[in-house]
Amino acid sequence: MSDGRLPVQRRWLRWPLGVVLTLLVLALGWVTVRGIGAVTDLQQVASSSSELKAAIADGDLDEAASLSAGIAHHAGSAHDLTSEPVWHAFGFIPWLGPNFTAVSEVAEIVDDVATDALVPVLGAAEELDLASLGFSGGAIDLAPFAAIEPSLADASATLTAAESQALRIDAEGTLPPLADAVREMRTTVTQAATVVGSLHGAAALLPSMLGAEGPRNYVIAMQNNSELRSSGGIIGAIALLHAEGGRISLVQQASTMDFPPLDEALPLSESTTALFEDRPGRYLQNITSIPDFTEAAPLIAARWQQRFGTQVDGVIAVDSVMTKHLLAVTGPLAFGPFTADADNVVSILLSEIYATVPDPAVQDQIFAQAASSLFGAALSGGDPKKLVGALATSAEEGRVRIWSAYEDEEKLLAASTLGGALPVDDTKTHVGVLFNDTTGGKMDYYADAAISTSVGVCDGEPTTRVRVTWTNSVTAEVASSLSPYVTAGGFYGVPPGSLRTLVTVYGPEGAIPSHIDRDGVEEPVQTALLGDRTAVQHDVVLAPGESTTITVDYTGQGAGERLTEVVHTPLVTDPDISRDELRCAS
Fold this sequence. Notes:
Blueprint: H1 8-57, H2 61-81, H3 85-90, H4 97-127, H5 143-168, H6 176-209, E1 216-224, E2 234-244, E3 247-255, H7 270-276, H8 279-282, H9 293-308, E4 314-319, H10 322-330, E5 333-335, E6 338-340, H11 345-356, H12 360-380, H13 384-396, E7 400-404, H14 407-414, E8 429-437, E9 447-458, E10 461-472, H15 476-481, H16 484-487, E11 499-506, E12 512-518, E13 526-530, E14 533-542, E15 547-555, E16 564-568, E17 576-579
Parallel strand pairs: 1-4, 8-16, 9-17
Antiparallel strand pairs: 1-2, 2-3, 4-7, 5-6, 8-11, 9-10, 10-15, 11-14, 12-15, 13-14
Helix pairs in contact: 1-2, 2-4, 4-5, 4-6, 5-6, 10-13
């Protein structure tokens, strides 16, 4: 008969289990308290960061310094609270673990940025007073840039590392509120890394590029987005800038009619020839069809040197849409019969001028007047802080590209967004969509695009799907009222009002197309290699109101990456870019 006592082995197990449960309860309480403290600290960081951004925009550096000290304190506290062993141990718990890991990584990133980036940037801001840059008369004091370059280099390195770490956080594995916070932090860090990286590049490059060590000449190519090319638009006007000792002047303007087609094309890469034959090497207007600006820019320089004999030290390409950012700073400008402001300048330059001024030669004169007026206003009448902001926005949209004939400068430019080189897949994977008009008119003012990506696994293969919907949004009624200069009048075999476009999709580095269709139907396509990327090109003709959808699936190396970013030709209207769920074909 049993005396009611547990067997010796079971009594022996009860104590260890009790101890473990007690430790788990204590640990849970420990991380709960620390988690509440860390979240409170991070919320304070977010709140103060918004105030800091406003203070910097207002030029209140004293307030910015005070806010940054508070941000650094709370960021350091959050990092301390989430970096001890018990917290890290909870990171291994199924389902809940990714949330602990994400909070810890966010706190670490914020602490690094607050300590090693904010302080150098604010120090640089004190050294470089944008309000006293001396833009008046086209002159810029170059000395301060050399002084702030080391500080900005440190800040840029910190933010680049923080961006890479932020991109590695698996937001999809966390609870929705935390996932949103991670995405917001990731966007903020990426924006800061881009801006500070651009500032560092400017500090490192501006003194020499603006003639501190000797005079420089730059060709500036103005692209017209109403007739699309890979990097923005057809070259519609071209000019020469001279820089010496920080003083910039517009010394010569030319028309594309000054550059007749070459009988023998300039040398082109195999990929360019495969996609566009030899046209970029023969026609100045088509050089910007080349997707890689590091290939296109030397050709633009060569054409200028051949035509005018002037040594060219660099090339700057800008598009028409960036004018709205600049006019938001300079205020309205008058040229030809027009008065343009930030709201109507794009419409004037890309549409109204063709209806108002039918003579192409007179149009060129007005474009030259517009360029000259805008350039003069930017250098003499704009608030320097706002002007820098307008240029930064334009660069972020891919509307400014710069190439230098000097190897050390070009190395820095090519590695930045300003360089216009094809993207490199490292912390992020890139896919691209290029649009090149073959209508022969100015119909792309009426074009719209939507681009979606889907990533995952199909049939055991990592897969990235790129889907592009291209629309001719002009109505038949409007099309019938457009001039032959806009519609091309059927000269190149395209019915007036229709839109003919080469739509090029390229995939991740190393991936290959496994499925290609247009509106669900497979058709012959042109393919080419852009470095390690496979490009697929469709020749599309759309009547007024029509649209078409191109789908390309890429598989293999480089495909299926969660962090996939779309690079695209800058359009008149930014395309709708989205991420869709990958649905594999049956």
